[in-house]
Amino acid sequence: MSVLEIVSSLKRLAEDATNRATIVEDRGCLPGLVLFLDNSDTRVVQTALDTLKLLATCESNHKRMRTELGLVDSLKTISKQDGATAETASRVLAVIRQGSGKKQQQPALKSTRVPLSTIQTPGPHMLQTHTARMARTVVLQVMGMNDLDGRRAVEEELLAIKGVVSFTFDMRSARVTIRVRDWVKTEELCEAIGMTKTMTARQVVRNDLGQEVMLSFGSSPVKLDADGDRARPPVPEYLDEDDENMFQPEVGKHAITKQGDTQGAGWLGAIGGYLAKTFYW
């Protein structure tokens, strides 16, 4: 799916008033729309703004939207430009700031507000109500990711990896949380970020004591020896038995794709046919 198709699918979900609060509460949708606002295609930006405008009609969403990292700043930037996008951005910004706006009736909202993984989308692609065990979450500490340019460079590299389902940035801690299919190797993610030449990545895991441990691998270009083979670091004369299991692999795996539906995996978690054959943009 193209970027435009993805954001258009989310907009169609937001057109149903009973979905709007649930979309904003989902951990992936709002950060995704913030990323879409930085897209170079004005159609993508306008569609993302239209989606935010729909979400802003639900007054209970205003506080969450105001506090979403990067959303207000992006709206301010767009509102200073020319054209329809600037007008829409200004309207959205005004509504979420004032805490006003036309309330939308949401009949039986308490009973209809359900996790996005169970919402059925229009058309042939529908989300299933059960969770697939086909994905896991990887947390990377990215050294050198200090600004939006660095974030975009990381995005570009991750988007080129088949099997990446979604990713969310925490710029304050310079970390990125990535949802990947279970066959994607963490080394591949670190190597991709290393391809930026300005950043490196280490995996964040927890040991048996619950302490964070940084695992470094594949974060810089592979070095070859004189014979053209992968160079290996010096091996110590011995390895203490106690060191053998010093680190444990990732603590848990989180199912995030929809089992039985080839179009069910998705970054925003609510769009049928979202990330089946590629992944989110």
UniProtKB/TrEMBL annotation:
It is found in: Mitochondrion outer membrane. One of its GO terms (cellular component) is mitochondrial outer membrane. Interacts with mitochondrial contact site and cristae organizing system (MICOS) complex components IMMT/MIC60 and MICOS10/MIC10. Interacts with mitochondrial outer membrane sorting assembly machinery (SAM) complex components SAMM50 and MTX1. Keywords: Membrane, Mitochondrion, Mitochondrion outer membrane. This is Armadillo repeat-containing protein 1. The keyword Membrane applies. It comes from the Eukaryota. In association with mitochondrial contact site and cristae organizing system (MICOS) complex components and mitochondrial outer membrane sorting assembly machinery (SAM) complex components may regulate mitochondrial dynamics playing a role in determining mitochondrial length, distribution and motility. ARM repeats lie at residues 28-70. The keyword Nucleotidyltransferase does not apply. GO terms for molecular function: metal ion binding.
